[in-house]
Write a structure and sequence with these properties.
Elements: E1 2-6, E2 9-11, E3 17-24, E4 33-38, E5 45-50, E6 58-60, E7 68-73, E8 78-83, E9 92-98, E10 101-102, E11 106-110
Parallel strand pairs: 2-11
Antiparallel strand pairs: 1-3, 3-8, 4-5, 4-9, 5-6, 7-8, 9-10, 9-11
Length: 112
């Protein structure tokens, strides 16, 4: 099983980023997927989750509702996290989770 995140970087407040997580080694469409983040000195927290199959079931942390969108492309075994109107508090390492496994994380820094 492998989960590989990409798309992180440095962005100014109010900016946007889209993270991707490419999955392999399991039947991707059969499993819910989620994004977590960990800020310096803080515990890892759930940001967004999407159900298996067509991904019609989605859940978000209150802090990102209306700004982040999780989606999946089962044909590409990939889950996405679109992030808009980013704030400095969104800074952290973002991790993809699925099939009980974690990716290596991708750094997102929101700073002017």
């Amino acid at each position: 099983v492998q989960l590989v995140e990409s798309g992180g970087g440095l962005v100014q407040p109010g900016g946007s980023l889209t993270l991707s997580c490419a999955a392999s080694g399991f039947t991707f469409s059969h499993y819910a997927m989620s994004w977590y983040r960990q800020a310096p000195g803080k515990e890892r927290e759930l940001v967004a989750a999407i159900g298996s199959g067509d991904g019609s079931t989605k859940n978000y942390a209150d802090s990102v509702k209306g700004r982040f969108t999780i989606s999946r492309d089962n044909a590409k075994n990939t889950v996405f996290l679109q992030m808009r109107n980013l704030k400095p508090d969104d800074t952290g390492v973002y991790y993809c989770k699925g099939f009980g496994e974690w990716g290596q994380g991708t750094q997102v820094t929101v700073s002017s």
